Every structure is written in C-alpha cells, then in structure tokens.
Amino acid sequence: MEKLTLECRGKINLAIDVTGKRENGYHDVEMILQEIGLADRLTLSLRQDGRIVITSDSSEIPTGEGNLAYRAAEAFFTRLGRNEGVEIHIEKRIPMGAGLGGGSADAAGVLKGLNAMFGQPFPIETLMELGEKLGADVPFCVMGGCAMATGIGEVLTPLPMPPKGLRCVIAKPEPFVSTKWVYENLDYTQKPDGLNVPAVAEGIRKGDLALICQSAANILETVTIPAYPVVGWLKEGFQEAGAVLSLMSGSGSAVFGLFENEEAAKQGAEQAKRYTDQIYLV
Description:
The chain is an alpha+beta fold. The chain has two domains: 3-159, 2-Layer Sandwich (Ribosomal Protein S5, domain 2), CATH 3.30.230; 167-281, Alpha-Beta Plaits, CATH 3.30.70.890. The chain contains ten helices and ten strands. It is globular, with a radius of gyration of 19 Å.
C-alpha cells in the first residue's frame, strides 16, 4: 500500500484530577477521556528517499521534528528496523492549543496508518507503547473509545461509551493555552467541589448520568480560568442553555457542553457565539 488517508479523532476529558507530582516532574493523574467526532484528516504517502516530510493546509503547525506526527513516523520506522520515508499531509480540523488532543490524534493516526501500510507488523499494544514515548494522550488516541487514565496518563482502563443520546457542543476561544504552563502553576491540593474521577467511571459503567455529572470536574480549570476568564464565561453560557455538564477539556482553552437534546445543544451553540466563532457540534 503506497498511500492511505484516515481520520484522526480528538478527545474531550469528562473529568481530570491530579493526585501527586513525581521527582522527575511528571504528575500523577486520574482522567476520563472520550473520543469525539471532530477529526483531522491525514494522508500518508510512502517515499523512496527515506525522508519524513510534513505538509499541511494550516500554516500554524510545525513541519519538522517538532511535530508529533513526524516523531511518530520516526519511532515507527525505528521499531520496524527499516529506513523508510513518508509524506504526511495534515488537513487540520482540530483546533490547536485547545486541550482536544489534536497533535496526539495525528501521532496516533501516523502509527496506525503506517502499521496498516506495512502489513500490520505490530499489535495495538506495541503502537500504544510507541505512543507513550511521544505524549501522554497518544496511547488513548491509538485505542480510542472511552477510558480512564491513571499513572501519568499511560495506564488505560477501557470504559463503555457514556449514556447515548447526549449532544456535545465544543467552543474554542482565542487563547492558546500551554499545557506545560498550566501544570507548572497547578496546586493539585486545591480540588474543585465534588471531583471524584472513579465515581465518574462508575457512572459511565452504570449508565448513570446523574452520578457522572455530580462527580465530574477538571482541576486544571483552577489555573486556566483565572488567567483566561473567557473559559469560565463559556462554561456559564453552556450551563445557562441547559447543559447537564460543562467543563474545560484538558488544559484548555476549549470548553464543551453536554446536552440532552438537539434543541438545547443549538441554544448552547448560540450562547457560545458571544465569545467565539470556533464552535463544533459533535
């Protein structure tokens, strides 16, 4: 197979807690990750010259080794033990600096795509292992679905999909938020009211929407919202429109609202238009 096009889906976090910090600077986390329909489109084309080349319809993404997709291809070929080349064209749809896992989704897409193009030499566990060295969200993006993540994000426990019928609206305001900056400024002892990630996981297993919503929160909001108030305004707008749950995803700046029907979701999108024109119904 010389060429392959695939969709690389982003994620939202239905809950995030940070439980400690390790001597190496990494944080221990408890998170619920949920795959979403918002996706980048990647086209992989094999090259004969052994080079990895990144192109994109977006001028904002790095095209060299600073791109996770580049590093994913490099890691795959190293594990394969072959000096191969590939051109990776990224049609960017997942906004950057949003906490939606766009870079991780692209890296996971490269790993899965190259694995398919070379005849599935590696099981999914190996691809997730390669992804772990690239970024904390990459193994989940390889796996997809819904999962609870512990450790530094690399220990994944699959969960069933959350209750059916919910509509999700995502709004991405202007600020580009640095995940590194958020974690550097986090006091993980200051917990949001009600935050209980294992209870969210249990609510998902039981299909208990009330348990999910009363236990879900994102500790990273304690850093991002004071610095970027628009994130809090978007949360409030979704809640006013009837969202059963509204949270910042990841370290921000994107905010999502979960609604029980299409009409409420449309009202949520209208509320979000006061603050941004980057709105996605997924």
